[in-house]
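hiii so um. not sure if this is the right channel but i have a protein structure encoded as tokens and i wanna go backwards to a sequence. like what aa goes where. can anyone help
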């Protein structure tokens, strides 16, 4: 049987995610408030998602091999969650870094082709962030 918190948490999540959009469309959208409200919407969604993951973290135990010790299984479930967050966060960081560095590198190369070696380093450093996150997640999963 579901508890009260398990029944109300999805409702609260939906209200927190849809609420700012309803306010934004009710008052109208203009250039000054659209960006800040969109960032607030994304932040609220990420916060609600993380709270749901933390509160419902015991459900990740199904991915663990042995279901005998509850504390150990919860730790394994949170370990898998930590590995997923490490990969996701590093991939988003790498995408942001490459999105900022690649156009500048292309511009520098188009002005002077001799700048290729210097410009490509910044793009490669941005992509390295994703590899570091992948390595961290492999280390976390190996420790489980």
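sure thing!! here u go:
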């Amino acid at each position: 049987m579901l508890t009260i918190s398990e029944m109300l948490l999805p409702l609260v999540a939906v209200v927190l995610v849809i609420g700012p959009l309803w306010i934004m469309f009710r008052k109208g959208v203009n250039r000054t408030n659209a960006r800040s409200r969109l960032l607030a919407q994304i932040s609220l969604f990420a916060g609600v998602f993380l709270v749901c993951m933390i509160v419902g973290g015991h459900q990740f135990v199904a991915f663990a091999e042995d279901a005998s010790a509850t504390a150990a299984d919860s730790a394994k479930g949170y370990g898998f969650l930590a590995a997923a967050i490490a990969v996701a966060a590093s991939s988003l960081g790498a995408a942001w870094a490459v999105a900022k560095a690649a156009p500048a590198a292309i511009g520098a190369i188009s002005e002077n082709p001799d700048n290729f070696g210097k410009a490509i380093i910044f793009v490669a450093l941005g992509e390295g962030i994703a590899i570091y996150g992948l390595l961290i997640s492999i280390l976390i999963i190996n420790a489980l």
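oh and The chain has four helices and no strands.
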